[in-house]
Design goal:
It contains one helix and 24 strands. The longest helix is centred in the first third of the chain and has 8 residues. A six-stranded antiparallel β-sheet has the order 14-18-23-22-19-20, with no helix packed on it. Among the domains are: 54 residues, no CATH class; 46 residues, Seminal Fluid Protein  PDC-109 (Domain B) (Ribbon), CATH 2.10.10; 57 residues, no CATH class; 121 residues, Virus Head Decoration Protein, Chain: A (Beta Barrel). It is mainly beta.
Length: 463
Amino acid sequence: MNKIKGVVYKITLLLVLTGIILLTGCAKDDPLEYIYAQGVNVENFSINGQDVVTLKGDTGAVGATGVQGPNGTPGLGLTWSSAYNNTQPYIIGNAVEYNGSSYYCTTNTTGNLPTDTTYWDLFVEKGSTGADGINGTNGINGTNGADGAPGVNGTNGVNGTNGADGATGPQGPSGINGTNGVNGTDGINGTNGTNGVDGAPGVNGTNGINGTDGINGTTPVKGVDYFDGINGTNGINGTNGVNGTDGTNGTNGVNGTNGTNGINGTAGAPGPNMVNGTTLTTLNGIIIGDGQFVSNITKPGGTVVGTNDTQTLSNKSFSDIITLLSGGTISVVNVLTSNNSWSGITSNFTAGSNISAFSICYITSNGSVLKANASANTTMPAILLCPTDVTGSASNSYLSMGFVRNDNWNWTVGQMIFADAVVAGGMNQSAPTGTGKQAQVIGMAMTADIIWFNPQIMILGMA
């Protein structure tokens, strides 16, 4: 807007595009009225501080180039110092990025944020987020590259630790008793008892009849005239009298003491089998599939049955090998008729903390048992199932393989069961997913409430 100083009382001439308009006798207060009345194209200007119009003339010719002005003061050079760091000293001219905008230092500073205008000035402000661009069209699929050469086989993994020893199987049937050993020789006879007292003598028989006397000879002078006559023959003896009856026998003498027993004969060799129903406490052998036994096994007290019988042995242990020959089996009951029951191979372990019934467990580095969790490899693998509640560090029997029934279960029959990655000690029929999770099959659903617990040592770590 052009400003005209002083008081103008009359405008005498206006140059306009359509010609020259002469204004005469126009007071200072009414030029606008006249100009508007003529419909002239005008621009505002001021007279004595009041807005007045001017007529718009033709564009004038370009004036000559003016003299070059003096050089401006030198601009401030900037040194880029990347993102702002509140521990770094900054000097004038250092430039930093802060929250998406750029600032330069105007006064040396340390620890003052770039938003503090005492030390910083904004020279590039962060722009607002632009609208999303239109998605580009999908590129044409590239052709498949040639198959790469097979990679070098990885080194074999370290063998897993041996599983816990399985529980001792049930005792085999007892063999038949061996034949009796040969009897020992008889002991020496005891000394004879003293003879009884003789009976009283029998009555003497009557004397026999004397024979008749011989005839006397003549009487010569003895020694001269005659010799002694020959004695007559003796008369025939009379027959003996009848023997008197025997006297009554005396009482028997006291029996002599028994002789000492003879030394026992050596025991006969054991027979091949033991008789049914025999009660023993020690077997000098191991029982094998057909009822025979070999050597070196101690059996606890109990009734042994024969090869064709069956019997449930409770809490019996063996200290040596049980061998099953062809056709020999150990049967594990799979028809569990009551809730919270199980059948299989067990081992005793000490709990590391409270463990609820039917939790699957792993063995820690110190040998204690804790609930398994498939969320990490440090709480795996699951190799045991706790069939009852365990409190604190108590010792308990844990199932390492067998059948388990729990009426609260509702499994899909015939499907695999995995260790759970959410609930410690839990089981699930869906394999866990996600980085670091451990997929381990620990059994199979036989019915909706019975599983075959048979944990696999191979575990897949999920990526």
